[in-house]
Write a structure and sequence with these properties.
This protein has six helices and twelve strands. By secondary structure, it is α/β, with parallel strands linked by helices.
């Protein structure tokens, strides 16, 4: 089985977001970077599939030279090889990203044979576009399942499960080769071991320089939403505070006046 995972280098989730002075980019001087959480689960799923069924796995990213670190993190947990689509000229929109990834997949399949399964995270942690995996599947004319919380590959078919609105599960079955996007929670990603990191450091990362594409969307600027700070009001102390507590509960509608 041949599996490809597409990942993205993003600022560590939970970090405080600060913009550059012109409001066009995130100021990343004091931020660490990682793979998006959904994509960490996609990497883990690829490793498990190859461990169970044999074959090989590859990881691919479009990003700056520094994104090699995230590719090596993926190889440290069991991915066999890595491809860096080096693009140092800033953020690419979903259309341009999907086109570059599609071109790279076609070149990889011409050189190494077809991928049975191409995995994406459901959305990137920074932009939340939800689009790239679907665009790639459409360009390759392959079935696509999105938002998966469970998947099984057997007898040349992919069966995927995702949570349904109102509870319960939806199950889909499509032939391979296919494209799928997974959500955080489909598995528990493993941590890289020291031997795994040493092996990953010795592996070669294939470098590809995709041609720049005109953006279909134009960014006007970024904005960090105003934080809503919590406040505490002390109504009193001891039994003397009871009337004020009752008045407050009536005011917010917990008690009938």
């Amino acid at each position: 089985m041949q599996v490809l995972v597409a990942v993205k280098r993003v600022p560590l989730t939970g970090g405080r977001i600060v913009l550059t002075a012109d409001g066009q980019e995130m100021d990343t001087r004091y931020l660490g970077f990682a793979v998006s959480p959904h994509e960490e689960c996609a990497v883990e799923e690829a490793v498990r599939l190859v461990e169970a069924q044999g074959g090989s796995s590859a990881v691919l990213t479009l990003g700056p030279a520094a994104a090699e670190e995230q590719l090596r993190d993926a190889m440290a947990v069991g991915i066999d090889r890595a491809i860096l689509l080096q693009a140092d000229e800033g953020e690419w929109d979903p259309g341009a990203t999907a086109a570059a990834i599609t071109d790279a997949i076609r070149a990889q399949e011409a050189a190494h044979g077809p991928f049975d399964l191409i995995l994406f995270g459901n959305e990137a942690a920074d932009t939340g576009d939800f689009q790239v995996g679907i665009r790639v599947a459409y360009a390759l004319d392959r079935p696509c399942l999105s938002g998966l919380k469970g998947l099984t590959v057997a007898d040349g078919r992919l069966q995927g499960r995702r949570e349904a609105a109102g509870g319960g599960w939806e199950t889909y079955d499509v032939p391979l080769p296919a494209v799928a996007s997974v959500k955080e929670g489909i598995n528990l990603p493993r941590y890289p071991s020291v031997p795994g990191r040493l092996r990953a450091r010795r592996k070669e990362v294939e470098l590809v320089r995709p041609a720049a594409r005109p953006a279909g969307l134009v960014k006007l600027g970024l904005r960090v939403p105003v934080e809503h700070r919590a406040a505490v009001e002390i109504l009193g102390r001891g039994a003397d505070a009871a009337p004020a507590v009752v008045d407050t509960l009536e005011r917010i509608g917990v008690l009938d006046a």
